Amino acid sequence: MNPLLDFSGLPRFDTIEAAHVAPAIRQLLDENRALLAKLEQPDTPATWNDFVQPMTDAGEQLGRAWGIVGHLHGVNDVPAWREAYNEMLPEVTRFYAELGQNLALFQKYKALAASPEYATLSPVRKRIVDNEIRDFRLAGAELPEDKKPRFQEIQEELSALAAKFSENLLDATNAHAEWVTDEQRLAGLPADARAAARAAAEKDGKEGWKFTLHAPSYLPVLQYADDRELRARMYRAYATRASEFGKDDWNNGPLIGKILALRAEEAAMLGFANYAELSLTPKMADSPAQVAAFLRDMAAKAKPFAERDLAELREFAARELGLAKLESWDMSWASEKLKLARYAFSDDEVKQYFPEHKVIEGLFRCVQTLFGVELKPDTATTWDPAVRFFSIERKGRLVGQFYLDLYARETKRGGAWMADAIGRRLTPAGIQTPVAYLCCNFPAPVGQGTQMRPATFSHDDVLTLFHETGHGLHHLLTEVDELPVSGIDGVEWDAVELPSQFMENFCWEWDVLARMTAHVDTGEPLPQALYEKMIAAKNFQSGLFTLRQIEFALFDLRLHWEGRQDFMALLEEVRKEVAVIFPPEWNRFPQSFSHIFAGGYAAGYYSYKWAEVLSADAYAAFEEAVPAMGTVLDATTGERFWREILAVGGSRPAIESFQAFRGRAPSPDALLRHNGMVPTTA
Questions:
Q1: SS in 3 state form for 493-535?
Q2: Of 356, 468, 482, 612, catalytic
Q3: Which end of the chain is more exposed for a tag (fewer CB within 10 A), N or C?
Q4: What is the model's pLDDT at position 679?
Q5: Under a CB-based contact definition with an 8 Å cutoff, are residues 632 and 506 in contact?
Q6: Within its chain, how far is the Cα of 640 from the centroid?
Q7: CA 130 to CA 152: how far, in whole Å?
Q8: CA distances from 598 to 110, 244, 246, 252, 405 (A)
Q9: Residue closest to 625 by CA, chosen among 634, 615, 617
Q10: Active-site residue 410, yes or no?
Q11: Distance, CA of 341 to CA of 607 (rounded, Å)
């Protein structure tokens, strides 16, 4: 049997090969088309059992198989997998475009919604039917027949462009390296960053040290390297990736123009004034104007703090570092020096207390305490020897499993993400337990044999791991039995970051950190004095960080709201409105903005800030439990968060889930307080 067609259990990563992709996916596409042809016939009743359930069953198998292919394209982007993915991408996209435009199927859903059976359906099933009707409309089902072929072409082109955007960025990232042969040029760099660079050079059979544009190599150079020229060279290479300054074949600039034009055409065909209106239709936010007002209000609150942050940094750099002008490649380095001077600790000092095994232990302890589950090592085949696999049990019952892929690799796309491998649903054989992929790009252990030094994570890395775990918990701890709204499925995009950003908060709590740290050399736990310095520095430059996120979000929103093609000019306008830091003219940030051009965040990047309001307010419930319980790790509040947020998944509107947990509408007060942006009164 083709392993991609085996749905009896976990993916068979030990036997799946690129050659399996086309035969398996084509077979599933044929089977789905045959079923849909039957379901759209007049003699198929528009009922849940005769119509909706068979569609769900067939769609799940195609989704699972194609999900594996997409996952391997992301974590093992070797030529064979890239070719296999790109060969089938147009066919898969075409199928889903045809499905979304199938008027007969759309009419069946509308007939079910108008039938007596609809009133007897559970609220969860009613929501599924309502979502399907909405999604058919957004997919062009109501378009005139002569317009549908063009709409399908747009979907295929957009899918291909998104894949090419991501591949260009990875190829451009891999193509650049900085070689250092003079050890004096490594001044300031932490030992583990030097060791990793040495190992990278040795792997290539060369002397010296090799630095790349992958985050575990690039970020330490920008933050710690005293060699300003090295920082500048690395920054310029990173900031111009996949642009006109590199290989023509990898230039994402023309792709951005095509993507924007196609999105605008798609929106117009569906009767929307712009793509932003189309994007917001299934989200919590009501309109682009509402989102813009939200972002500008947050910018107004953050800007005074950002201006103070920048003024302090410039004054310090001039006085202590001899930098009359602070350039973009100096920002992280000077900020690290200022933090060290102000708070008497460095990020690298903290990093030594976060060896991988202790971080994982602490994360698991936090999850287990909050949600009454048990996380256990489990066995499964994987796509890389470093990937691990775990099970989650609740009251002795298996509720989910997940793969943990922590380390950066040249064949793995950048960033961090959660993706679902299998969704929870009720089948004739019982509950199908959900499975997730948790992927990060952290530094791997360095050395060989007995000289192997464990991977150590920065506190930012720890935050990232907790963040992705929050997404994973949303998928894995669901109690919903209907696949289309189980776990993260069916959750409004601007609420999907709530559990992930919520989990980050625990990384700042002493009763969490105290038990998840051990110095990589001495085994000593994090000293409380160092923890208190971390807390004092928690909101260091939070104004600058907040404005940066708002800059990205407002750029994304206006780009899709105003129908602009001159994206660099628009970015400059946005910066003049909300930013306090202006990068060099040659910076090409949009060409690497994968979230909106190769991910699902088009006209939706604001979701991070939108959901952060929800997550901070939700976390405040745990803070409120401290006087009575003595800890934020309160199982009673955790049980309520699980029951009202995680367990219900997408089975009801996110605002209803939030209000069920908090008992009121969300407030931004907690977020502003957490970020230290509460105005002081004289």
A1: HHHCCHHHHHHHHHHHCHHHHCCCCCCCCCCCCCCHHHHHHHH
A2: 468
A3: C
A4: 60
A5: yes
A6: 25
A7: 23
A8: 33, 19, 20, 11, 21
A9: 634
A10: no
A11: 35
Q: Is 498 exposed, middle or buried (0-12, 13-18, 19+ CB in 10 A)?
A: buried
Residue whose structure tokens are 């950066």:
408
Closest CA to 197 of 171, 172, 224, 170: 224
**Hunting for tokens 């950002």 — which residue is that?**
306
CATH class, 3-142 region: mainly alpha
CB 367 within 8 A of CB 404: no
Residues in the chain: 682
Q: Which of 88, 105, 129 is nearest to 33 (CA)?
A: 105
pLDDT of residue 681: 43
The structural domains of the chain, with segments of one domain joined by +, span 3-142, 176-241, 253-345+541-605, 356-519
What does the pLDDT read at residue 682? 39
pTM score over 0.85: yes
Whole-number Å distance between alpha carbons of 623 and 411 = 42
Residues contacting 74, CB < 8 A, separation 6+: 412, 413, 417, 439
Q: What are phi and psi of 623, to 5 degrees?
A: -65, -35
Calculate Rg over the CA atoms of the chain.
25
Structure tokens at 424: 């929870």
Q: 542-545: which pairs have CB atoms within 8 A and are 24 or more residues apart? A: 542/305, 542/309, 542/675, 542/676, 542/677, 543/302, 543/303, 543/304, 543/305, 543/306, 543/307, 543/308, 543/309, 543/677, 544/306, 544/309, 544/310, 544/580, 544/581
Distance CA 463, CA 483 (A): 30
Q: Rounded to 5 degrees, what angle do the CA atoms 643, 647, 652 make?
A: 100
Measured at the CA of 564, the angle between CA 563 and CA 568, to 5 degrees, comes to: 155
For tokens 């009251």, the residue is 395
337-369, pLDDT tens digit by residue? 999 999 999 999 999 999 999 999 999 999 999
CA 561 from centre of chain: 23
Residues of the chain whose pLDDT is less than 50? 681-682
Instruction: Please answer whether residues 295 and 609 qualify as being in contact, where contact means their C-beta atoms are separated by less than 8 angstroms.
Output: yes
Closest CA to 13 of 269, 338, 379, 284: 379
List the structure tokens of 171: 């190829």
What is the b/e burial string over 65-82, where b = at least 16 CB atoms within 10 angstroms of the residue's CB?
A: bbbbbebbbbbbbeeebb
pLDDT of residue 356: 97
Hey, do 3-142 and 356-519 end up sharing a CATH topology, with the first three levels equal? no
Instruction: Check residue 259 and give its pLDDT.
Output: 98
**Calpha distance 679→682 (Å, rounded):** 10
Enter the tokens of residue 559: 């780009």
Q: Which CATH entry fits the domain spanning 253-345+541-605: 1.10.287.3610, 1.10.1370.10, 3.30.470.30, 3.40.50.1980?
A: 1.10.1370.10
Report whether 190 contacts 132 (CB < 8 A): no
Q: For residue 628, what are the contacts with CB-CB under 8 A and spacing of at least 6?
A: none
| Cα–Cα distance for residue pair 622/662, rounded to 1 Å | 11
